[in-house]
Amino acid sequence: MIGVQWALDASAGQWIVERTSGQFGGTVPDLLPAGFEAYVRVFHPFCRCRDGRSCEDASWAETAADFGTIMHPLAQSAGLLGAADPWSVGPVTSPSGWTYQAPSVGWMPKLQQVMPILAAHTTTASSAVAAIWEGWGSPVSSPGRGAWMIVAGGIQVGLLSRPLTWFRRVGWRCRDSAPRPGTGVLPADVVNGPKLELPGRSYILAHLSLDELAGDDWEQSVLWANPPLTRTPSLLWPDDHAWMLATEIDFDTALIGGSSELAESLLKSPELEVLEVPPTADLRWRP
Predict the structure, then answer these.
(1) 231 close to 14: Cβ distance less than 8 angstroms
(2) Would the CA dihedral through 173, 178, 182, 186 be positive or negative?
(3) Which residues span the domain enclosing 56?
(4) Which 3 state secondary structure label does DSSP give 17?
(5) Tens-digit pLDDT profile for residues 243-284
(6) Are 99 and 148 in the same domain?
(7) pLDDT tens digit string along 65-85?
(8) 198 lies in a domain?
(9) DSSP class per residue in 86-136
(10) Total domains, the chain
């Protein structure tokens, strides 16, 4: 056990650089190292509600059945909802009356259900690496303070980065200077230190035990804790490289590469929705 600590350099991720495609894209080779026996896709659940009752999780298979669409390993959530544009999908009501919200993007809601399975398929469960995308903002830098507002017919619509006074006009007012790396949750020397550089993405690395991500309090206890907005690792792997998990920030599913035995365990889990994908699968949007 190395101990829970920030990585002093990015060398722990060099194997990923060497075994991925070197391209910025949405294929399995872009996101996971080549050479694993199997690759699977873990689907983040939809959220659905009806008649004003509290929302519940819905699997992609259930959603497809409700909308009369087809679930398959390369399915897109917007396609299952019958949407033509994945970037403008709001709540959608199915023929049966359920209203669906799209799955979470960029973080893994089922992390605690996945961790015990991953930990059982490595010899170094007490020594792993988590990669945190630097672009999440608040862990890296203070977002400053500002707001813009549209006032139309007495209805206010706006986007707020931090609480402050609203202005009754169209426009933006910034009260602080531009965000500066090192002014957020993480220490400045970590934020400004070496990072794992992959095409289109930079990550800060942390050494940890997989147990750190399995507990109910992981959002409060991990090094990058920033509740209630603590993000799951964008990348995660054990020191023996037995598997790797990738949660691309623009995806509403996660990918895991590993042994055939690991894939079988994930596929059999009653708490997860998992399908095997080809090692060259393209997961980009297709209308």
Answers:
(1) no
(2) positive
(3) 45-103
(4) helix
(5) 999 999 999 999 999 999 999 999 999 999 999 999 999 998
(6) no
(7) 999 999 999 999 999 999 888
(8) no
(9) GGG---EE-TTS-EEEPPPSSS-TTHHHHHHHHHTT-S-TTSEEEEEEGGG
(10) 2
